[in-house]
Specification:
The chain is α/β, with parallel strands linked by helices. The protein is about 35% helix and about 20% strand. It contains 12 helices and 11 strands. Helix 6 packs parallel to helix 7. The longest helix is centred in the N-terminal third of the chain and has 15 residues. The protein binds S-adenosylmethionine. S-adenosylmethionine binds next to helix 7, strand 6 and helix 10.
Length: about 300
């Protein structure tokens, strides 16, 4: 039977074509053991992901061709990916991408890696905006752009302003908006919360603010603690200070009957509930994530 490598011809000195001694089955086994030794739980699956990335092939190829000998370039790329992952660098920073709400987002160490639970913010915002005549929203802390761009993708006549303290995060958001075709409808501004916004009022304000209490950072997984941007994770205090500033400032930037949608952390719902002053806000609603944790707060301005 012909092996994949039989189909290649390669010139001496050409690392992109010259075969290494590493074949897929052995590469997977040794990578699995290195990753497991370094505390990675799903070591076999992650070894396969890194290998697919290094050789730019899919899972079917991996399992159909266990004897495929990697080229020298593929082998050295794989080694370098493996070393990075063994230090607990997240797979997404190695691949440079993360899927969110059915779209593929570029991610770099300048931005938080989009999480599945954050899709709740997107779903609720889409539902509200679709029922509105004007569909103008604002995001505080846009990061990679995953929330705003997903909303813009699903609501074609919506427009948005995305704010973030981090210029490098805004650059990632810009590239994602360009790639995913929503840059014309998204204005990006470097700003501490609403400080640099024009003062206009929005139908909806969305945010996934940094809500991890600083005391909890040490106990996080190394992937999060050592690699994701600290300013995206925590306010450096009790985890509630930015949430509280947003609740306080939002009424000046929402239309009457406008909504504030925010992701919140574990055990924060009681304190967050108390931040919404009756007389200014209707009573906020809390929505649980798949683990039953109140994860999304949705409040309507009176
Ligand atoms: C938890 S991340 C969310 C990123 C993205 N929206 C997501 O859901 O994946 C929080 C973001 O808020 C930004 N941020 C932190 N403090 C801020 C502030 N005071 N004003 C504006 N943005 C801020 C961080 O730079 C980071 O990009």
């Amino acid at each position: 039977m012909a092996r994949p490598q039989d189909h290649f011809s390669y010139a001496p000195g050409d690392t992109a074509r010259r075969r290494s001694a590493m074949i897929i089955s052995e590469a997977l086994t040794s990578a699995e053991s290195i990753l497991a030794t370094n505390g990675i739980v799903e070591a076999r699956r992650e070894a396969a992901s890194l290998l697919m990335l290094a050789i730019k092939r899919d899972k079917t190829f991996l399992y159909a061709h266990p004897d495929y000998a990697l080229t020298e370039l593929e082998a050295s790329t794989f080694e370098s990916f493996l070393q990075r992952r063994a230090t607990r660098e997240p797979l997404q920073y190695i691949s440079g991408v993360q899927e969110f709400y059915g779209l593929e987002f570029e991610v770099t160490p300048d931005v938080l890696i989009p999480r599945p639970e954050t899709e709740m913010v997107v779903e609720h915002a889409i539902e509200i905006l679709k029922s509105r005549a004007t569909k103008r929203f604002c995001e505080i802390g846009i990061g990679s752009g995953c929330i705003s761009i997903s909303i813009l993708h699903s609501v074609p006549d919506a427009t948005a302003v995305g704010l973030d303290l981090s210029t490098s995060a805004l650059n990632v958001a810009r590239r994602n908006a360009e790639k995913l075709g929503s840059i014309e409808r998204l204005e990006l501004i470097e700003s501490d919360l609403f400080a640099k916004s024009s003062g206009e009022r929005f139908d909806v304000i969305v945010s996934n603010p940094p809500y991890v209490p600083s005391d909890d950072i040490e106990g996080l997984q190394p992937e999060v603690r050592d690699f994701e941007p600290r300013a995206a994770l925590t306010d450096g205090r009790d985890g509630l200070s930015i949430i509280s500033r947003i609740v306080e400032e939002a009424p000046r930037f929402l239309t009457s009957g406008g909504f504030l949608l925010m992701e919140i952390g574990i055990d924060q719902s009681t304190q967050v509930d108390a931040m919404f002053e009756p007389g200014i806000w209707h009573s906020p609603e809390f929505f649980p994530d798949l683990q039953g944790i109140p994860r999304l707060v949705c409040a309507e301005l009176i």
